[in-house]
Amino acid sequence: MESEPEDKEKKDRKRRWIRSILFLLRDLGVAALIVGIILLSLFLYTGNWPPMVVVESKSMQHSDTESFVGVIDTGDLVLVQDAHSKSDIITYVEGRATGYGTYGEFGDVIIYKQGGNYEAKSIIHRALIRLDWNESSGTIDIPDLDRLELGADWSGKTSGGENVTSPYGLNGTIMLYHVGYAKVNITLPIGTYILQFNQGDPGGSAFVALGDHNDGNTDPRIIMQDWIEGRARGEIPWFGLLKLTLFRDPGAPCCSEIYDSAAPRNSWDALLVAIVLIIAVPIVLDFGISYALDFRRKRKEAAEEAPSEITDETTEPEVTEPETPLEEEAETFDDLDELDADIEELEEQMEGSRSAQETETVEREPE
Question: Is the pTM for the entire model greater than 0.85?
Answer without folding.
Answer: no
